[in-house]
C-alpha cells in the first residue's frame, strides 16, 4: 500500500521511502534530521509497500491507486544489481546525516489543501523544477503560494508578468510562466481545475515531458505508471551498466531510452524510490564530473569505476578509507 504524506513547498524536504519486507529506509524526513542536512526536493512522499511483488489498493485524495501497467517486454537484470542497490542505499543513509546541502526556511504550505488544489500545486511546482536547483524551485513555489497563485483559476486570472517576477530565477522562467498560464487554462476547460490523470494526457500539456508526467502521476495521483528518469538517473544507470540500447551493449542516449530499458527488468516496487535514491547518489558521490569513486562502496562492482577520475589513488586518500560492502 502507498501512503502519501506531508505536502510541502516552503521548506527543504526529501523523499522518505520504505520498501519491501525488510522496511529499508532510503531517506529521512524533516523531523528525523537537522535542517542543514536535508536533501533538496519539492515534496515529501512517504511510501510503504506491504507486498513487494504486488501493489495493493489505497485511497489517496479520493482516488484509488491503480498500479503500474505491466510490460510484455522483459529483459534479464544486470549482474549484482541488488548488491549495488543495497550499497547505494547504505551510502545515502549514512551520507544524509552529514551532507551539506542548501536549505531555506519559510512557512510550510498547508497539508490540508483540497485534493484538486493539491494536485495542481504539485504539477505547477514540478514544472518549475525542470533544469532548476531545488532551493530555487522551492523559493519560486513559495512565492506563488504566498500570493495565492497555486490554483488553476488564480494562475489563469493572473498577469503573466507577475508570474514571471514571482518565479524568477528558475531556469527558463519566461517560458515557464507562459506554460503555467496555458496549463491553467487547459485544466480549467478540460478538467474543472484539476489535472489530467493519465501520462498520455499530461504529456499533452505545454512544458510537460516524460520525467514530469511520471513524477506527477506518482505524487499527484499515487499511480506508478513508470520510472521518473532525469539526468542523474540516466547517467548513473549507464555507469553501473544497468541499461543499454535494445539488442546492443551500447549505452542509452536519452533519459527516455533509459526509462524504457530500466523498466524491462527493474522490479516494479523499485520504480518510485529509484529516482530519489539515485538523484541523491548522483548529487553527492556519482557526480557528473569527477565522480568520487574512491569514496564509493560499490566501486568494485561498477564497470565504470575510476574511468572518469584521473588520479583515483589521490582522490581516495583525500576522501579517507574506502568502505566496502560486507
UniProtKB/TrEMBL annotation:
Entry EC number(s): 3.2.2.-, 4.2.99.18
One function term, GO molecular function aspect: class I DNA-(apurinic or apyrimidinic site) endonuclease activity
Domain HhH-GPD: 128-284
Cofactor(s) needed: [4Fe-4S] cluster
UniProt keyword Protein transport present: no
Keywords: 4Fe-4S, DNA damage, DNA repair, Glycosidase, Hydrolase, Iron, Iron-sulfur, Lyase, Metal-binding, Transit peptide
Taxonomy, superkingdom: Eukaryota
Pfam families, per database record: HHH, HhH-GPD
UniProt entry tagged with the keyword Transmembrane: no
Annotated CDD domains: ENDO3c (cd00056)
Residue numbers spanned by region Disordered: 307-326
Compositional bias ranges of the Low complexity kind: 310-319
Catalytic activity as recorded in UniProt: 2'-deoxyribonucleotide-(2'-deoxyribose 5'-phosphate)-2'-deoxyribonucleotide-DNA = a 3'-end 2'-deoxyribonucleotide-(2,3-dehydro-2,3-deoxyribose 5'-phosphate)-DNA + a 5'-end 5'-phospho-2'-deoxyribonucleoside-DNA + H(+)
Family recorded in the similarity comment: Belongs to the Nth/MutY family.
Function as written in the Swiss-Prot or TrEMBL entry: Bifunctional DNA N-glycosylase with associated apurinic/apyrimidinic (AP) lyase function that catalyzes the first step in base excision repair (BER), the primary repair pathway for the repair of oxidative DNA damage. The DNA N-glycosylase activity releases the damaged DNA base from DNA by cleaving the N-glycosidic bond, leaving an AP site. The AP lyase activity cleaves the phosphodiester bond 3' to the AP site by a beta-elimination. Primarily recognizes and repairs oxidative base damage of pyrimidines.
Protein name: Endonuclease III homolog
Organism expressing this protein natively: Stylosanthes scabra
Gene that this polypeptide is encoded by: NTH1_1
